[in-house]
Amino acid sequence: MVDVTAWHGPTDRASAALEQLQIGGTCQGREELIALASRADYEAALRAAGELGEREPIAASPLLAAAAQAHWHSLGSNGCTFASFLSERRLEYGWETHVVHGSSEPRELATAAAEIFAERREEPEVEVVSVLLPEVDDEALLAALLARLSGLWDWDVRVQGEETDADLGSIVRLGVRAAVEFEHWSEVLGFGCFAAQVNTRAAPFTEMAIRAKPPKRHRVNQRAYMADIDTGFERDQVREWWRQTEEDRLRRLAPSQNLRGKAKVSFSLLASLWGGM
Amino acid sequence: MTTSSHPRLNKEVYLGSDRESDIERLLGELEAADVQCVIDLRLGLSRSDIALIELGAQSRHMHFAYLPELAEAPEAAGQPSRALAWAARTALRYRTCLLTQGRSKETDGARQIAALVGLRLVSLGEISDSEETAG
C-alpha cells in the first residue's frame, strides 16, 4: 500500500550530520572529474552521526531521504544556481517535498504522484512540488510509472528524441509536463540514479520536481519553468545567475550528455524499457 | 483557505469597471496598473466580447478568466463554491483586477472574492488617481 510522507525540512540533528558530508562520488564532466554526492555518501554521513542504523538503508527512511535530496540540490549538484538558492530556502519560497513510498506498483505510485500535485498546485503559496520516490531504483519501474502518468489528462509524457550511447546503446529522451493554471504546462525536472541520466540529474533518489504555477505574466508558449519563481532580485543578478547556470551545466555534463541535459528532457531511459510501453 | 498573511501573497485586489466600454482604453488602464490577471465578472457578455478581451489581455501578458457565475447569485454562507475559492486564491497570488460593469451583483461578487481571503478591495480608478497625483 502506497504511503505519502510530507517533509517540512531537516531536523537540527540531520542538518548537523549533513554538514559533515564527505563527497566520495564523482562523475566525468566536460573536461575533468566532478565531485558528486552519492546516496552512499549520505548514508555514511548519517550513520556516522547516529541518525541512520548500520544496516538501515536511507531509502527506507522517507524523512532522511528527503533531507539528503534537498541537501544535494543545495550543493548546486544539478548545475542550476536558482535551484541551489531555492533549495536552501524552501519554506520561504514554497518548495514542498512529498515522499511516496511503500509500493512498487506503477499504478499506485503514479496515482499518488498525480494526486499530490493536483492538490498542492492549487495552493497560492506553493511554487514547486517535489515528488520523491526513494524506493524507485529500477529503471523499468520508472518507465512503467511514467507510462501511467502519460495516460492522465493533466500530464504529458512524450519522446523528445533518441540517441545511441557508446556504452549503453539506444537511449530515449523523455519530456514530462504537468498542467498548471491558465492552460500553461510545467516542465518537470526528473532526477535519479539511472544509467542514462545525465550528471546534473543523477541525484541520490528518484524525484520529479514540478513547477506548480504558471509565470506571473501570461506566456505565449504557455510553458512554466523553475526559473520563473520570483526571487525578488534585480535583473542584473538574475542575468548573472543564468550565466552561472549555463556555465556550470556545461562544466558538469559529459560531452555526450548535451542533448540529454536540456531542460525539456525530464528523464533519459534505455530505449528498450520505453519502447514496450 | 489561505489568507493574505503570507509575505509573498497580495494584500489587495483591484476592482475595475468598463463603463467606458472602450476595450483598448480599459486594457491600457489594466496594463498601466501592472495587472497580472483579469477575472471578468461582467454579466451577459457575448462570446465575441469575451474572446476580444481574453485575446487583448493575453497579448498584454495578462492571465484571463471569465467567471460571471460569481455575479449571478450571492454565495450562501458555508463552503465556498469551487469558482469562488479559485478566484480568491488567484487574487492572492496574482495582481488581479476583478472586472465589472458597475452592477451591484457584480460588485457583490467581487466583495465576496476579496472577503474570502481577507483582501482589501481597491478601485482601479483610485490606483490611477493616486499614481497621477504622486508625481
Task: Describe the model.
The complex is a heterodimer of chains A (277) and B (135). Chain A is built from nine helices and twelve strands. With 277 residues, chain A is an alpha+beta fold. Chain A has one domain (3-275). The mean pLDDT of chain A is 95. Chain B is α/β, with parallel strands linked by helices. Chain B has one domain (12-134): 3-Layer(aba) Sandwich (Cobalt-precorrin-4 Transmethylase, domain 1). Chain B has helices at residues 23-32, 47-59, 69-72, 82-93, 104-116, 124-134, and strands spanning 12-17, 37-40, 63-66, 96-100, 120-123. A five-stranded parallel beta sheet of chain B has the order 3-2-4-1-5, sandwiched between helices. In chain B, helix 4 (82-93) packs across helix 5. The relative contact order of chain B is 0.26. The model of chain B is unreliable at 130-135 (pLDDT under 50). Chain A binds chain B through residues 93-94, 122-125, 181-182, 213-214, 216-219, 230, and chain B through 2, 6, 8-9, 36, 57-58, 61-65, 86, 89-90, 92-95.
Secondary-structure map:
The complex is a heterodimer of chains A (277) and B (135).
Chain A: E1 3-7, H1 12-19, E2 26-28, E3 33-35, H2 39-48, H3 62-74, H4 81-88, H5 90-93, E4 95-101, H6 106-120, E5 128-133, H7 139-150, E6 155-165, E7 169-180, E8 184-187, E9 189-191, E10 206-211, E11 223-224, H8 235-252, E12 267-270, H9 271-275
Parallel strand pairs in A: 4-5, 8-11
Antiparallel strand pairs in A: 1-4, 2-3, 5-10, 6-7, 7-8, 7-12, 9-10
Helix pairs in contact in A: 3-4, 6-7
Chain B: E1 12-17, H1 23-32, E2 37-40, H2 47-59, E3 63-66, H3 69-72, H4 82-93, E4 96-100, H5 104-116, E5 120-123, H6 124-134
Parallel strand pairs in B: 1-4, 1-5, 2-3, 2-4
